[in-house]
User: What shape does this take?
Amino acid sequence: MKKSFTIHDLPPQERPRERLEKFGIENLSTTELLALILGRGIKGESILLTSQKILSKFGSLEALKEASIEDLKEIRGLGLAKAAQIQACFEVARRMNHGNLPDGQTSNKKQILSSKDVFNLIKPKIKNFSKEHFIVLSFDNRNKFIGMDTISVGTLNSNLVHPRETFEAAVRRHAAKIIIVHNHPSGDTDPSKEDLNVTKQLEKAGKIMGIEVLDHLIIGDGYKSIM
Assistant: This one.
């Protein structure tokens, strides 16, 4: 007795590739589009079912777009390769919308004038993250935003967030100043003792490097500056 269902059990005319060829890509469902991107399912499970589970977990393409590799890999059937395929598709679309600019760079340099500006910039990108992400925003000497880099993923501590990795991103972007940001998935923006220790460590390193640390924001349901 067969215990599982795969895409090959569908009539040929109901399979995503065949439907694309016959009706055009614009007439495929989001589930079918994801199935085409991912290609193959896992043993005992069709790629259509895996795609349905992805959409069910995240609820929308907007939420899926912001999902981290770690978030994606929590779904059975998504390893690093398939999670990377999903992120790559969204990144290609992002670059098309921004004129194919280098990673993390915006089409027009934006001036960040307040902590609220940082919050508005970052919040949509991290609102669905289930783990802490440590992010560095780089600026030129006129406070114009250059780009952002994710330095680490996981609970913030001085071993995970080292000045070397933090300032490597800033140096690569020729930044004069940085703002450091990390999220609290719980929504609570109160800093931990480790948050404060890491901030002091990076502030001291910035003075040595000649790169000013303007602020460190914790983002949750709202935001809080700890500098």
User: Anything to note?
Assistant: Residues 7-97 form a domain with the DNA polymerase; domain 1 fold (CATH 1.10.150.20). The CA atoms of residues 20 and 27 lie 8 Å apart. The longest strand covers residues 145-153. The chain has two domains: 7-97, 115-225.
